Amino acid sequence: MTVDDPEFQTFVEGITQQISDLKAEVIRPETLANYYQTQSPFMLSEDRRTTLITFTMCGDFDDASTSIEEVAVVVDEAQEQDDFKVLLTGQAAFGLDQREMGQADLEKGEIFGVPIAAVILILVLGALVAAVIPLVLAAVSIVVALGVTALIGQAFQFSFFVTNIITMIGLAVGIDYSLFVVARYREERARGLEKIDAIARTGATANRTVLFSGMTVVLALIGMVLIPFNIFISVGAGAIFVVVAAVLAALTLVPAILSLLGDKVNKAPIPWFGRAQVPFETGGARTFWDKVSRGVMAQPIISLILVVGLLVAASIPFFGIHTGFAGISTLPDDIESKQAFQILDEKFSSGEVTPAEILIEGDINSQEVQAGIERLMTAMASDPEQAFATPRPLEVNPAASIALLSVPVAGDTANEASLDAVKRLRSQYIPAAFDGVSAKVHVTGDTAFNIDFFKLSKDSAWVVLPFVLGVSFLLLMLVFRSIVVAVKAVAMNVLAVGAAYGILVLVFQEGVLASTFGFQESPIIEAWIPLFLFTILFGLSMDYHVFLLSRVREHYDQTKDNTESVAFGIRSTGRLITGAALIMVAVFWGFAAGDLVGLQQMGFGLGIAILIDATVVRMILVPSAMRLLGDWNWYLPRWLNWLPDLRVEGTMDATAPAGADD
Q: Spelled out in words, what is the top-level CATH class assigned to the domain 355-444?
């Protein structure tokens, strides 16, 4: 059947009428057109078996990707007729499919991450009741953050990604923060402190550490909110909301629950793991963590050189990174907007969906402007890459002061060919065509938007990176009253994040083991991923560094023995930090198991960075560096003695039983 058959025309006209009958705020009626109305050859395939119905959605991208659902209903109903295949595509349809996939990925991430997190909690804490508390706190944090987002969302439009971000980060930090508080409380009770004293002691140590860690994460994430772009603001704000909620819950809700439960927190112990309620540092030199730390500190120079070399080598692929947006072509093959896009690419020009929009301001009817337009069209027709299809008819406003020239561009809005074509338009063809002409010419459209977004991301990096590094350094220096600790921690985090970047590029961009992990190979890394990973990882990785160093400093203040204090800190936090890290990895990689490339890259990048930080950095890099530095670890110049003492490790409670510490 071809477009020449009456049945075909009746079917197309029927769908067109149904779309026309939609509410005025869904589509712009004057833009709705089909082949039978226009007789345009651009709306017809060569075999005359495929045609287009085109229209422009009302509102911005977020509005359009929501209201397109009404058009999708019309298309779905039309699919019920066996003789025809109707598909919906375009940027709005792409946005709709992304949102639906994001919701599916969210459910998949929860199904994967929560059970694994629960199992790890049970193994680390050794009791079912104790393991439930972090899960409750995470759930409360997520609900509160979603509520705040919904409230603020009445005035500010967030990206649909914000729900995924809140759930993923909320599960990770909510469980993490409460895990450290619950574990410290049980440790103090096992030492012999009364319930109220154990809660107070926990408040003076673990709670203060949680507060500082949360502050670090929030301040790092503020760097993202400073970038004037919706995706960055949405992701950064969502993460900030849930981190603040998790910190507040850990400082208020968890102590209240512990006060109510008392020793019932140890109920339902797990065989072979129930001993997890005893102090985490008990066991001295017999523990695995103690053996590791002492083994590393026995050969600190070799350990340091090997690990730094390994992390630097892992970072090398990052220097070949290509950032961009995952366009329609990166969606799974069963997604409708991609299927339609592939048909467009095969039978028409895929650029018909997302053309480059050339806006001309001036006296459109003047001879010089008309000549400029002609020169521009000639230049595009002569493009050596043949990236431009025949432009659509020029649209001019009634005052003849503004004209719009829509030019289909080869490929989707995110591939190199379309990006380079629009760059040539801006840098070569338009300046040459309108040289000396009294007119302003702008290029917009989805491809141009992507180019501007990439530039903004790169420009913003020079603001965000120094901000995050500076804030992290200042906070660490204040908390530990040491320049050396602050510099060392920042340097180690840079190494860990760099290695994570390199592995991310290696897996997704280069395709190394991508199929093994079940990931979709992509020629680009999502443009917002590097900055997001940097800010969130700098905050999250500080968690483990602060928890570890607070125990080291706590012991060092008592003994002044650097080597023994480092060993104490590692063995007293080893199982706890490892468990917390594995929970984060499980949560992040659960979300990486979805279909959206952006979420895959984000989840995998976060997971691999946390894994590197909690193992290679904490187990080898930290003890070897601290062993070499000795007492210089805690060096603070005299001229900085005026700084306030904000230490998070607290002081030993005088009520603690004798011999309670190692």
A: alpha beta
